[in-house]
Amino acid sequence: MPERTRAEPGSARLVLGIQPVREAVRRHGSALRELLIEDRATPKLEALARFAADQGVERLRRVPRSDLDRHARGVAHQGAAAFAPELTLIALDELAADPHLQAIVLDGIEDPQNFGAVVRSAVALGGAAVLWGEHSSAPLTPATFRASAGAIEHARLCRVHSVTGALGTLRERGVNVVGLDGSAVVRLSEVDLSGPSVLVLGSEGEGLGRAVRRACSSLATLGRTVGVDSLNASVAAGIALYELSKQRTKSNV
After folding, report:
1. What is the DSSP letter of 136?
2. Average pLDDT, whole number, for the chain?
3. Which residue among 3, 52, 86, 220 is least crowded, i.e. fewest CB within 10 A of its CB?
4. Domain residue ranges in the chain
């Protein structure tokens, strides 16, 4: 059975921001527990209310901005909030069994903005799965959902106890595990990613951990950077996922 995020009994996942809420409505429709919209008429908020009605959302409340501020606790809400079902997480065995697997593994990405941005790129560029460890990682919070611009509602997500152990399992199943390392000799564009493949992205500060590095099949660089020591983690992920998607598209032609 798919793993699910933990929640208190009777609780629901808070989604904030017009686009993230819109995607939650698109994904869950009548399964949304409640939709809150600020009680002021703006074209974007009115369009969201009409879309929710069309998607069968049964409970929509107009509330003062102070109510939304109280729920958001500092996260920008743009006048919209939804209480959505918990995210469904895919088991590692299910991913490993996918003969067409394409995924990105996050090793120590703790910034919700980077985590959410990587999820957005993963969904947009071929629907790659996102795998991360339950420790030293950004939590699944409204800030993360917002940073993904709603893409997390459509993502294939896999949370594991140990990233190193998960990479070992994937390699045993014949998956090509490529660690992204700026000091590597081989460019990612020179690596064959046409088969089941995962890309492993380390944190901005530390890069790949030693054990994670050893667990990779190979290491590859995105190319030499000019004027900066390294790329932002989410930018690097986007470039790597584009290369993965490009090779996969060519192999299917």
Report:
1. S
2. 89
3. 86
4. 10-84, 88-251
